[in-house]
Amino acid sequence: VQLVESGGGLVQPGESLRLSCKASGSIFSIHGMAWYRQTPGDQRELVAASANGGPLQYLDAVKGRFTISKDSATKTVFLQMDNLKEEDTAVYSCLITDGFADYWGQGIQVTVSS
Predict the structure, then answer these.
(1) CA distance 35 to 31
(2) Are the C-beta atoms of residues 110 and 19 closer than 8 Å to each other?
(3) How many Å apart are CA 61 and CA 87, to the nearest integer?
(4) Which residues of 14-44 are buried (b: 16+ CB within 10 A; e: fewer)?
(5) What is the pLDDT of residues 44-93, one digit of tens each?
């Protein structure tokens, strides 16, 4: 199983980005999904997650601005990021579980700077 992330880049504060994480290979379905982020020198932190269709969970710093979702037909997980702030700058990685194993994306850079 391979996860391919896309949608990162450089934006100005207040702008939006939509990250995508598409799974390919022998993955039956998406049971759980999550997005993490990490900056140099810091620990990786959970940004958004949903497990087995349960309630969506968000890091307090992104509540009201970020939305996690999925398209089961294409086995793609999304992270819509609105009103981006400079402190959102990080490498974002997706995690998908199919109930048998966890799969990680390669990480994608998001830079918010004026």
Answers:
(1) 14
(2) yes
(3) 9
(4) eeebebbbbbeeebeebebbbbbbeeeeeee
(5) 999 999 987 788 999 999 999 999 999 989 999 999 999 999 999 999 99
